[in-house]
Design brief:
The complex is a heterodimer of chains A (251) and B (66). By secondary structure, chain A is mainly alpha-helical. Chain A contains 9 helices and no strands. Chain A starts with a helix and ends with a helix. Chain B contains 3 helices and no strands. Classes of the chains: A mainly alpha (251), B mainly alpha (66).
């Protein structure tokens, strides 16, 4: 493998992982606040740097499948919760701004503020970003180590991966503002969709499933879930409208 | 005691959320698919279908509770 081919390979392979991590960080940032998401990302980056310094090539022995299964199961569980709530709001079963729920949430949040907001952090946002970046970061490290060691050009392989990570961060900074302007429930629905998609993929991969097309199957899962959620919202809206017209006719 | 129950409640809310059926189903789906894969049976196509089934089930449960 020549230098350019090695650079391009590690760049593209790392870019796929970096985009996956970026999606999770953006999801955490837009919905839970940027401070916690960015601190989670920075903490993950620090942990990865520490692991590289402490373990070096021995890192390739970390049981990545077990990690994928745990992170995937958690993301899938979060994703289903978020999707369910967003679908109920989008279809009219729940108010877009449910005052009673907001009040209950605020009082509950006030009661458990010490547990949820320790050190001024939203732990949900922090851990979401942290887990996503640690998992994908480890995969980038594995890519660099496997290509770098097999070709005896670790510096070139690292340069390809570093370029992919820097480019992905720049893209993330550029699309941050437009994402913040999207309607709240639509954002939550998209985040639920993303978490469900990545949760299914990582959880399944960690459990031992071989997805057809490897990482490309993420797009298939995304499309399947997007169609399902859109159809579900349509069906529930129609049911809600039928119930409302029956109620109006009865009164 | 209050701190311990507060932490336990936080962990439950964090990992399980407002419907335990969804969290349990996720573990069952992934464990089942993993067992099948280790036995040499490829059931990758069943996983997203099962996930959609769980979403439908938890939606139904949520609507009946409203």
């Amino acid at each position: 493998m020549n230098t350019f081919a090695l650079l391009l390979t590690t760049f593209l392979a790392s870019a796929v992982e970096a985009v996956e991590a970026l999606t999770i960080v953006l999801a955490a940032g837009v919905t839970r606040g940027w401070r916690s998401a960015l601190i989670g990302m920075a903490a993950a980056a620090a942990l990865l740097a520490l692991l590289i310094v402490a373990l070096g090539p021995a890192l390739s022995h970390i049981p990545i499948d077990a990690l994928r299964a745990i992170v995937g199961a958690l993301l899938l569980s979060f994703g289903l919760q978020w999707s369910r709530k967003a679908i109920l709001r989008a279809s009219g079963y729940k108010a877009q701004h449910d005052e009673a729920e907001i009040f209950a949430r605020q009082t509950s949040a006030a009661r458990s503020a010490a547990a949820h907001n320790r050190a001024g952090l939203d732990w949900y946002g922090f851990t979401l970003a942290f887990k996503g970046v640690v998992l994908e970061g480890l995969e980038v490290i594995f890519i660099v180590l496997s290509f770098g060691e097999s070709t005896h050009r670790l510096v070139t392989a690292s340069a390809g991966a570093a370029a992919a990570v820097v480019l992905t961060i720049m893209v993330g900074i550029m699309i941050r503002k437009p994402l913040e302007r999207a309607p709240e429930n639509m954002t939550k629905l998209v985040v639920g969709l993303m978490l469900t998609t990545f949760g299914t993929f990582w959880g399944g991969e960690g459990a031992g499933i071989k997805w057809p097309g490897s990482d490309a199957s993420i797009l298939g899962l995304l499309a399947l879930y997007a169609v399902t959620m859109t159809v579900t919202i349509g069906v529930l809206r129609a049911a809600q409208a039928r119930a409302a017209s029956l109620k109006a006719a009865a009164s | 005691m209050g701190t311990i129950s507060g932490i336990a409640r936080f962990l439950y809310d964090f990992f399980v959320g407002d419907d335990w059926v969804g969290a349990v189903a996720v573990i069952v789906i992934l464990a089942g698919a993993g067992s099948a894969a280790h036995a040499g049976v490829e059931l990758w196509w069943l996983v997203p279908i099962a996930v959609i089934g769980v979403l439908a089930l938890t939606l139904r449960r949520a609507i009946t509770r409203l």
